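Table S2 (continued). Query chain:
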Amino acid sequence: MFILFALLGYLIPATAQSQNFKIDTLQYQGTANNIVNLVILGDGYTKDQLEDYAADSKQFTNYFFSIEPFKQYSSFFNVFAIRTISEESGATHDCKASDCVQGDTDLGKFPKRYNKFARDHAVPVTHPKTIFGSSFDNGGLHRLVVPQKNERIEEVLKTHIPNYTQVVVLVNSPFYGGSGGKWATSTVNFKSNDIAVHEIGHSFAQLADEYWAGNQYAIESVNRSQTADVNAVPWKYWLGKDGVGIYSYGGKGSPSTWFRPHEYCKMQYLLAPFCPVCQEQFVASIKRKSSPFIAVKPILNNVLTLDSVQKFTLRLAKPSPNTFKLIWSLNNETIAQNIDSIYLDPGMLHSGANELKVIIQDTTDLLRNPSYLNYRDSIVWKLNQLQSNALAKPTNRWADTLETCFGGDQVLTVKMPVAGLEYRWYETASGIPIGTGTNVFIRNLSQSKKYHVVAHWKDKTSQPSEILLKTLAKVEKPKDIRIRIDKKKNKVQLTVQEKPDTRYNYIWLNADGSPIYEWDAFNGEYVRPTGANNKLVLDRSATVRKVYVQKVDKETTCKSDRTEVIF
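Corresponding output:
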């Protein structure tokens, strides 16, 4: 967590009625214009309780991102907690609601923060002076906690984070309660966070309650309808999936004429998860309120002219697991898919105006409605070329020379491969290609040889690049192996009888080809020997056993052919 005094350039002098508060950045993903800005305000926290507020806001953030679909789409959110200060601690309790239990509760029996007791505990009558005036007992319900100073909330937001998306007010009271509306509100009672998350369903995703709240709320919504027609309900694309159906609100009167999509959803029961229909609406709302393109390079507000191969890069907010499908196109022709950066060659552009475009489709299973499934995010770079250019000569990953062992394999690779180009590899400057693509595999090399690579785009061909595969000297296999049997110790010692040479050592192998390496106890893995390793001692077997030994160049790690040893 780090502290900001003003967010992303917003620093507005305090007026006589306002003051500047510190801002805790609990999660930062990108510029505020592209990301959902979740802002937390504290009410009833004195200046001596700001660390309590920091802990409470962090706890709420962790809880919020433990719930789907916020968990999958957490990278689309910034979270800021403004350290608002109250003169006195707590919230107003008139205790006039019929369900308020008046009296005193010994809070010493409970944890200091995030108090774990239910809603029916005795509540003392209190009237503290707090910055937003949050009070219980609204609408005849004690648990309905509402901030009364809306203008003060607006003022704090305007002077600190005016581009907020969703606001949560945390009230420093251990008693159960909260509310919705413009600001989702929650006390720090352990059950209250669900109230705030439920209410965010109303304000953020325009979800309806899936319990009957009264005739005044009986309006059509994405998760409430007065039709039971399977072809007409707003959630028709989800019917039959994960418990989604058409369920009546009630048996008699108005509730019996209205229907909801699920029987166990957080929009009905606070402890339930959000049903698939509601999760889809959250995802759709996140997409409406944000952009997956956090940053792009080069910037988009200029018309570009390419003088050489240039890199185009995206920094994206992605779901987890990533369900994005990316398509890069140049002048409406696909050149790459599902990568976050590409190289572009000016030789691929025609003279005049060109467009490089990226389209993102979210293939998540959380979306079924075609209007959401067919939604695409996109950006476009405008490019202007004064004339048609030749394709750039390919650059080899390892410059113009690459060494390899005698009889070994090698991989040739194009450095900074350009999206959309076809690379063809040749053993000679022309003829039939030995392979295509950004990589080509060369097998069983026995002599040094030059290879060539050429880039192709439509009717254009680049100049070839050459790379020399330099074959290193052959390592001769061991020839003279002495076998010594110690019957008393029931051991066999195998010794390579060659003139010692510090450049080489030996590796022994089992009959199945698995190496008999040294065990590095410190790193917990097998390693190549550091010494000559020309001797191997094994337990003597009652049957014929077979092992192999190879000579190894310690500098290049090239190996000889295997020598068989039978004992």
